[in-house]
Amino acid sequence: MLETEKQFTLSNYKLGLEYAREQDKNDPLSTFRDQFHIPKNKEGNDWLYFTGNSLGLQPKSTQKYIQQELDDWANFGVEGHFEAKNPWMPYHEFLTEAMAKVVGAKPIEVVIMNTLTTNLHLLMVSFYQPTKTKYKIVIESDAFPSDRYAVQTQLEFHGYDAKDGVIEWKPRQGEELLNIEDLETILEEQGDEIALLLIGGVNYYTGQYLDIKKIAELGHAKNCMVGIDLAHGVGNIKPELHDSGVDFAAWCTYKYLNSGPGSLGGLFVHEKHAHNKKLKRFAGWWSHNKSTRFNMRQPLDVIPGAEGWQLSNPPILSMAAIKASLDMFNEVGMDAIREKSEKLTGYFEFLINELNNDKIKIITPSNPKERGCQLSIQVKDADKNLHKKLTEANIITDWREPDVIRCAPIPLYNTFEDVYRMTETLRTLL
Ligand SMILES: *Cc1c(COP(=O)(O)O)cnc(C)c1O
């Protein structure tokens, strides 16, 4: 099928509950909803859950995966490192291939470890090497606070003033979205002073999916390192990290990857850096050559590729939850997930536009190529009450200051009927 035929333009959708139900009936992924625990309200009805971008729902299989490790710990104690059904010593390796597929990377480029902000810091230790004249860092003006604090404190750690060292890529006056031409201008004018670009691949607030390949090209043309925060990208869009050429990326797995609150994050280091032993880094015993790790009194011999950024032996219970999720993602594949996602979010957009109410406005790009599944609905006069009333109607969305309701229909467990009922409630409330 041609790419253009595959795109669901607004005119493909129809109004009415019947249409929504028909779409659910024809949905090849419809059976997956049943593989998740859907939270219920006091009356025992399913919530309409649209916050999988904040904390993904629990796959029913997760319990089994974690129970396996609890049993093996009970039965084997320390021997579980080798004797467990999934031996703990190489446990992270069981996740690598599936994780790499989800982000479009090679296995040597990916590892599951630590949490997102920790990983950003570790990656900046290696890829933010400022000099007296080239030390500035570009972030989005509306970067997630944790990323901003990480960048500010890295600058200060190296002895620079964060006020002077952070360059913000801002939307134009009166606009909400970022324009790549403005990044180009920043790099043309200040590229010689910029050491690093650290950009959210999908912005947490607007839902805008940026062209990370283009960002990498622009940054590299000015000898800047390029890192991407994929917290809102992983499991949502197909970032094709290897082909994008970005130097590094990091993400969490508890949003779109459904691995549970505070679960471990992922890290990507491009293959071109895999064997560079000159890169500075903070190391631990898990960075070291696996074959001599337990000889203990060895000089550091860093593992090539992403694994060489590990520090510690990892928490297996969290990894078990990630394995449960990745096994499901691998079974479905990101192509099928994206296909449904574009259709479901397109339908959502269609219904909101049909409400034709000037109290609300979608600020997320309408081009499916420039967004994931989230729609950010800006509410006029920042009327937070609308969000409150949605919650009272058992529709779970989130409010982000100053004036946005974020709403993410998740292709693995949200239905067309969910979206229909959500927008009908919105109609009543407006
Ligand atoms: C969710 C999110 C985080 C959270 O970081 P943790 O270290 O996992 O707490 C950071 N950055 C972005 C862009 C996020 O969306």
TrEMBL record:
<dbReference type="GO" id="GO:0030170">
    <property type="term" value="F:pyridoxal phosphate binding"/>
</dbReference>
<dbReference type="InterPro" id="IPR015421">
    <property type="entry name" value="PyrdxlP-dep_Trfase_major"/>
</dbReference>
<dbReference type="GO" id="GO:0097053">
    <property type="term" value="P:L-kynurenine catabolic process"/>
</dbReference>
<protein>
    <recommendedName>
        <fullName>Kynureninase</fullName>
        <ecNumber>3.7.1.3</ecNumber>
    </recommendedName>
</protein>
<feature type="binding site">
    <location>
        <position position="229"/>
    </location>
    <ligand>
        <name>pyridoxal 5'-phosphate</name>
    </ligand>
</feature>
<feature type="binding site">
    <location>
        <position position="254"/>
    </location>
    <ligand>
        <name>pyridoxal 5'-phosphate</name>
    </ligand>
</feature>
<feature type="binding site">
    <location>
        <position position="117"/>
    </location>
    <ligand>
        <name>pyridoxal 5'-phosphate</name>
    </ligand>
</feature>
<dbReference type="GO" id="GO:0009435">
    <property type="term" value="P:NAD+ biosynthetic process"/>
</dbReference>
<dbReference type="Pfam" id="PF22580">
    <property type="entry name" value="KYNU_C"/>
</dbReference>
<dbReference type="InterPro" id="IPR015424">
    <property type="entry name" value="PyrdxlP-dep_Trfase"/>
</dbReference>
<dbReference type="GO" id="GO:0030429">
    <property type="term" value="F:kynureninase activity"/>
</dbReference>
<feature type="binding site">
    <location>
        <position position="285"/>
    </location>
    <ligand>
        <name>pyridoxal 5'-phosphate</name>
    </ligand>
</feature>
<dbReference type="InterPro" id="IPR010111">
    <property type="entry name" value="Kynureninase"/>
</dbReference>
<keyword id="KW-0662">Pyridine nucleotide biosynthesis</keyword>
<dbReference type="InterPro" id="IPR015422">
    <property type="entry name" value="PyrdxlP-dep_Trfase_small"/>
</dbReference>
<keyword id="KW-0378">Hydrolase</keyword>
<dbReference type="GO" id="GO:0043420">
    <property type="term" value="P:anthranilate metabolic process"/>
</dbReference>
<feature type="modified residue" description="N6-(pyridoxal phosphate)lysine">
    <location>
        <position position="255"/>
    </location>
</feature>
<feature type="binding site">
    <location>
        <position position="116"/>
    </location>
    <ligand>
        <name>pyridoxal 5'-phosphate</name>
    </ligand>
</feature>
<feature type="binding site">
    <location>
        <position position="232"/>
    </location>
    <ligand>
        <name>pyridoxal 5'-phosphate</name>
    </ligand>
</feature>
<dbReference type="GO" id="GO:0005737">
    <property type="term" value="C:cytoplasm"/>
</dbReference>
<comment type="pathway">
    <text>Amino-acid degradation; L-kynurenine degradation; L-alanine and anthranilate from L-kynurenine: step 1/1.</text>
</comment>
<comment type="subunit">
    <text>Homodimer.</text>
</comment>
<comment type="similarity">
    <text>Belongs to the kynureninase family.</text>
</comment>
<comment type="pathway">
    <text>Cofactor biosynthesis; NAD(+) biosynthesis; quinolinate from L-kynurenine: step 2/3.</text>
</comment>
<dbReference type="GO" id="GO:0019441">
    <property type="term" value="P:L-tryptophan catabolic process to kynurenine"/>
</dbReference>
<feature type="binding site">
    <location>
        <position position="313"/>
    </location>
    <ligand>
        <name>pyridoxal 5'-phosphate</name>
    </ligand>
</feature>
<dbReference type="GO" id="GO:0019805">
    <property type="term" value="P:quinolinate biosynthetic process"/>
</dbReference>
<keyword id="KW-0663">Pyridoxal phosphate</keyword>
<comment type="function">
    <text>Catalyzes the cleavage of L-kynurenine (L-Kyn) and L-3-hydroxykynurenine (L-3OHKyn) into anthranilic acid (AA) and 3-hydroxyanthranilic acid (3-OHAA), respectively.</text>
</comment>
<feature type="binding site">
    <location>
        <begin position="144"/>
        <end position="147"/>
    </location>
    <ligand>
        <name>pyridoxal 5'-phosphate</name>
    </ligand>
</feature>
